Automatic annotation (TrEMBL):
Region (Disordered): 1-22, 81-116
Keyword set includes Transferase: yes
Gene Ontology terms, MF aspect: DNA binding; DNA-binding transcription factor activity; pyridoxal phosphate binding; transaminase activity
Organism whose genome encodes this protein: Aestuariivirga litoralis
Protein's UniProt keywords contain Isomerase: no
Entry-linked InterPro entries: Aminotransferase_I/II_large (IPR004839), HTH_trans_reg/aminotransferase (IPR051446), PyrdxlP-dep_Trfase (IPR015424), PyrdxlP-dep_Trfase_major (IPR015421), Tscrpt_reg_HTH_GntR (IPR000524), WH-like_DNA-bd_sf (IPR036388), WH_DNA-bd_sf (IPR036390)
Name of the protein this chain belongs to: PLP-dependent aminotransferase family protein
Top-level division of the source organism's lineage: Bacteria
Pfam families from the UniProt entry: Aminotran_1_2 (PF00155), GntR (PF00392)
All residue ranges annotated as the HTH gntR-type domain in the record: 21-89
Keywords on record: Aminotransferase, DNA-binding, Pyridoxal phosphate, Transcription, Transcription regulation, Transferase
Bilayer-spanning residue ranges: none
Family of this protein: In the C-terminal section; belongs to the class-I pyridoxal-phosphate-dependent aminotransferase family.
Matches recorded under Gene3D superfamilies: Type I PLP-dependent aspartate aminotransferase-like (Major domain) (3.40.640.10), Winged helix-like DNA-binding domain superfamily/Winged helix DNA-binding domain (1.10.10.10)
């Protein structure tokens, strides 16, 4: 059993009650300094908020706020049943073993700790995250929460956040919905589970893209539904093949804006075909729109839900890609006719996500800062995408072909016949590169071979160096 490092926290953290700096800020600042100096190593367990508050003779809420601030910045992480620890992967901050080394080598790049191995999926840029603005919002609502927040009991989430999400979807995705149709979730897994429990029953057949999102397939299957793999072509899910395989399916799970993992965009004609099938079959289309805000080439098509005039689409989104995975918030938009059913299901079986970040996120979105952040990151990600494509050009056509989707945060390298992507993943891992295999996203036996390379969490220089190393391994 790991012992908290700060067993004598009074000697590690000093509180100056005469200082104008708030006590929670003093605690957060000193803990941050201990992490950056290397005194607190990654995965070090911290004292509980109760224990540290008693040792420092401060209110427990003060320590909670300090911890939450550092969690939002990426320095700490919380795990159910194991308390609070220093994050395993820290923000891209200068980490040195001692102040002396930091003074002696201020410009050495080796002093930087990368968030992960190149091409790891699920990462976003952390260096350009608006840490200060976000931290101030969290701190303000934590210190002085409105009475309506303290009395909140709406299972669909904080109403101002749902209103902000509805406005965002109208402006960015063309979806005209009311706040009453929006459900705040604790991310994709929570959304899929709630949708499955609300509209499906054991034995129902559901179409899933092939290849597709394994996590969604797994979550829905846990509810007892039968997953039907439906092939994907250059225009997304092939509706006619779905009709051949399971004409009585109750739902279809699709990623039309950027099919995961191939990156293809479903054109208007295929979208209308899918909607016509859903209406004729009395089925539901579940639209997972996970990172459509990041489109670099051409004008994005409106969301599938914006085309739906017959209330056949349930829309899901997440803040993990466009804001931060640490926030752990997402949303569902349901047709008005299904609002009552979802509300009853949420009340009886599902706990809504924590309110901690919801008011802050609502204000961040309402102020326009969220849209500014997306536009800024889109420029940064576009540059990283171009750098990676350029670095891979020397081997394209010889070792692989590059499927450069006009949107999203990753590229697909298709491998030639006879080359195992799983074997390549293992070889790359031995060289410090973390790629995903395309074949692992298939449910059936027929599997194309390829490598998925995520670029969002890495600098242009890092991506170019990793691309050169990847080419060396494949040669």
């Amino acid at each position: 059993m790991s012992r908290p490092l700060l067993g004598t926290s009074s000697s590690e953290i000093g509180i100056d009650r005469d200082d104008r700096e708030p006590i929670q800020s003093q605690i957060a600042r000193q803990l941050r300094s201990l992490v950056l100096s290397g005194r607190l190593k990654p995965q070090t367990k911290l004292p509980s908020t109760r224990a540290l508050s008693e040792e420092l003779n401060v209110a427990r809420a003060t320590v909670v706020e300090a911890y939450e601030q550092l969690v939002s910045e990426g320095y700490l992480e919380t795990r159910s049943g194991s308390g609070t620890r220093v994050a395993a992967e820290l923000p891209e901050t200068l980490l040195t073993s001692s102040p002396k080394e930091r003074a002696r080598e201020p410009s050495r790049a080796t002093g930087r700790r990368e968030p992960a191995r190149p091409f790891r999926s699920g990462l976003v840029d952390w260096e350009n995250f608006p840490h200060d603005d976000w931290g101030r919002l969290l701190g303000r609502f934590w210190r002085n929460p409105p009475v309506t927040l303290l009395e909140h009991n709406d299972p669909f989430g904080w109403l101002p956040l749902r209103e902000a999400i509805a406005r965002h979807l109208y402006e960015w995705r063309g979806i005209d919905c009311a706040a009453e149709q929006v459900i705040v979730t604790a991310g994709g897994l929570d959304a899929f589970d709630l949708i499955g429990r609300s509209i499906l029953k054991p034995g129902d057949e559901v179409w899933f893209e092939e290849p597709g999102y394994p996590t969604a397939r797994r979550i829905f299957s846990l509810g007892g539904v039968t997953a039907i793999p439906v092939p994907v072509d250059a225009e997304g899910m092939v509706v006619t093949r779905g009709c051949d395989r399971a004409p009585g399916a109750r739902a279809a799970f699709v990623t039309p804006a950027r099919q995961y993992p191939t990156g293809v965009t479903m054109p208007l004609a295929r979208r209308l075909e899918l909607l016509d099938w859903a209406a004729d079959a009395d089925a539901i289309v579940i639209e997972d729109d996970y990172d459509s805000e990041y489109r670099y080439v051409g004008k994005p098509l409106p969301a599938l839900m914006s085309l739906d005039k017959r209330a056949r689409v349930i829309y899901t989104g997440t803040f993990s890609k466009v804001f931060s995975p640490i926030v752990r918030l997402g949303y569902i938009v349901v047709p008005l006719a299904l609002v009552k059913r979802f509300r009853e299901e949420r009340l009886s079986h599902g706990a809504p996500p924590s309110l901690m970040a919801q008011p802050a996120l609502a204000e961040f979105m309402g102020s326009g800062a969220f849209a500014i952040h997306i536009r800024r990151m889109r420029r940064i990600y576009a540059a990283r995408r171009r750098a990676l494509i350029e670095a891979l050009k020397q081997a394209e056509g010889k070792l692989f072909t590059v499927d450069a989707s006009p949107a999203g945060l990753m590229l697909l390298l298709r491998l030639p016949a006879g080359v195992s992507d799983e074997a390549m993943v293992e070889k790359l891992a031995a060289k410090g590169i973390e790629a995903q295999s395309l074949s692992s996203h298939y449910a059936g036996r027929k599997r194309e071979q390829g490598l998925l390379l995520s670029f969002a969490g890495f600098s242009e220089d890092d991506l170019q160096q990793a691309a050169a190393k990847l080419i060396g391994v494949l040669t």
